[in-house]
Design a protein that fits this description.
It is a single chain. This protein is of the alpha/beta class. The chain is built from ten helices and 16 strands. The chain has helices at residues 11-22, 35-45, 54-58, 75-82, 99-112, 121-124, 126-136, 170-187, 276-287, 298-317; strands at 2-6, 26-31, 49-51, 63-68, 88-92, 116-119, 143-151, 191-198, 207-214, 219-225, 231-239, 243-247, 257-262, 265-268, 296-297, 321-322. The chain has a nine-stranded mixed sheet, with helices on one face. Strand 11 and strand 12 (243-247) form a beta hairpin. Helix 5 packs antiparallel against helix 10. The chain is globular, with a radius of gyration of 20 Å. The two termini are 30 Å apart. Residues 163-169 have low confidence and may be disordered.
Length: 331
């Protein structure tokens, strides 16, 4: 049950190493295009092997899992290289910059029988998972509306390297993909049409407001503001018999509160928190490709990117933009 780690920049990768050890499994390899970075990361974390040669890792029969935490531009390289080997892939999301490229990668993994899971921390939240179970159980009736609000100065994920080494993802990919995936995860619905407004800042927007029509009659609205004072995030799912409201769950930390609104009253819903990366690593190691896992898969990354691309186009054109139907991978 050995793991290889591909990419050495993010602090989350270091925390994932500790999560793997907590499962009683073994971090064996570090892979980077920089020999120095790989050696330093392996030395700091006590991992026995480091290399720039991916073939060495894929030839090691002890490697069962590959965690791809490289920058966005390098993720397709690692997924393509690992596909078809004995390793299962867990990749930070999104897996590519465009839905077309993500679809190619997901299709490759499907064709080669390589399990591909996406590390989406918002799915790992115990509060969001509780919301999903309550929704599936009919606790709030038929879902009619989803609202996500977040704000405050934007901070990229903590990185070992200089702050600009991962520049270029923009809010659309760093935040909106996660919010759209969360709305799909909670409701089990898919995006159909998008309309959006952004602040006229000239470059990547720091304020973005958009609405997406989901199938089954559900509407999803998001407000993402990163030039405002810090706001406590909110995730609201409203049905025809009640509503669920989560506060403080979009920070990437295992914290927050959940409230049920029904019959004109608010009721606190107790939830036992857990470590997000440990929960993700455990589910990935145990789930494989089995049905019913809460992990995002390649197809989920494709659909979220399709929706984000439609949101970006809607903001530019100032009109509603249709979103391609639920992605179908080529045979």
């Amino acid at each position: 049950m050995g793991w290889s780690f591909m990419g050495t920049g993010t602090i989350a990768t270091e925390l994932m190493v500790e999560a793997v050890r907590s499962l009683g499994q073994s971090p064996l390899w570090v892979v980077s295009r920089s020999r120095t970075d790989a050696a330093h990361f392996a030395g700091d974390l006590g991992i026995p092997h480091s290399t720039t040669e991916l073939d060495l890792v894929l030839q090691d029969p002890s490697v069962r899992f590959a965690y791809v935490s490289a920058g966005l531009e390098r993720r397709p390289h690692y997924i393509t290289a690992v596909a078809g080997s004995r390793a299962h892939i867990l990749c930070d999301g999104p897996i590519a910059r465009t839905s077309g490229q993500a679809g190619t990668l997901a299709a490759l993994c499907k064709r080669t029988g390589t399990p591909l899971a996406i590390n989406q921390p918002l799915r790992a939240s115990a509060i969001h998972q509780t919301m999903r179970r309550l929704i599936l159980d009919g606790d709030i009736g038929a879902v009619r509306s989803v609202v996500i609000v977040r704000g405050g100065p934007y901070h990229a994920p903590p990185d070992r390297r200089r702050p600009d080494s991962r520049r270029g993802n923009g809010i659309h990919l760093d935040v909106s993909v996660g919010d759209i995936d969360l709305a799909r995860f909670l409701t089990g619905t898919d995006p159909i049409e998008a309309i959006a407004l952004d602040a006229p800042d000239g470059e990547a927007p720091t304020r973005l407001s958009y609405a997406i029509r989901l199938d089954e009659g559900c509407l999803f609205q998001a407000q993402e503001s990163f030039d405002t004072v810090d706001l406590e995030s909110m995730v609201l799912v409203a049905g025809d018999r009640g509503a669920l409201i989560a506060h403080g769950t979009l920070s990437g930390r295992a914290s927050g509160t959940l409230t049920r609104r029904a019959d004109g009253r608010n009721e606190f819903v107790p939830v036992r928190e857990h470590d997000l990366l440990l929960a993700t690593a455990r589910e990935f190691a145990e789930a494989g490709d089995k049905e019913g896992s809460w992990l995002a898969r390649g197809i989920d990354s494709v659909i979220a990117l399709q929706a984000v691309e439609a949101v970006a186009m809607a903001a530019r054109k100032r009109r509603a933009v249709p979103i391609r139907g639920q992605a179908r991978l080529p045979p």
